[in-house]
Amino acid sequence: MPHSARRPVPGPRSKAAGLAAALVLLTGCGGAEPEAAAAPTTSAGVGVVTTAADGVQEITLQTQDDYTFVPDTFTVAPGTVRLTVVNVAEQMTHNLEFDGDGPEPIEEGIDFLGPGQEETIEFEVTAAGDHPFTCTFHAQLGQTGVMTVAG
Ligand SMILES: [Cu+2]
């Protein structure tokens, strides 16, 4: 039985379609909960490390109208990492910066991610260990995470 999760990584277009579908589902629930208080709803593929056609490992994180990265922890293998952050928020702007406390520096980051935007960065990791990262806008509200490079 074919398993959709093993299909090639969807491009930006289908990713957007997936998000739209997720939003439709959300609205369809008809709950009275304020959006900011709702539990984060992740799109398909978010948080799953996959290997792209070019051999690079890929991971997508999601941010929304709260102060969390979803997921806030993930593990990659040494090598090139292509990290995408999708901000499905309707109002909130986020960013992502590695704190520099990891076993090696990661200069790449995402400076500004407005509502509905997504951005992809690519960087190399070689040493095992934990790399804390932060949304600098909301660090004091606890919007942090950790990328682990497996040994
Ligand atoms: Cu933020």
Automatic annotation (TrEMBL):
Signal peptide boundaries: 1-32
PROSITE patterns found in the cross-reference section: PROKAR_LIPOPROTEIN
Matches recorded under SUPFAM superfamilies: Cupredoxins
Lineage top rank: taxon: Bacteria
Residue ranges constituting the EfeO-type cupredoxin-like domain according to the UniProt record: 51-149
InterPro entries documented for this protein: Cupredoxin, EfeO_Cupredoxin
One of the Pfam families matching this protein, by short name: Cupredoxin_1
Keywords noted in UniProt: Signal
The protein's name: EfeO-type cupredoxin-like domain-containing protein
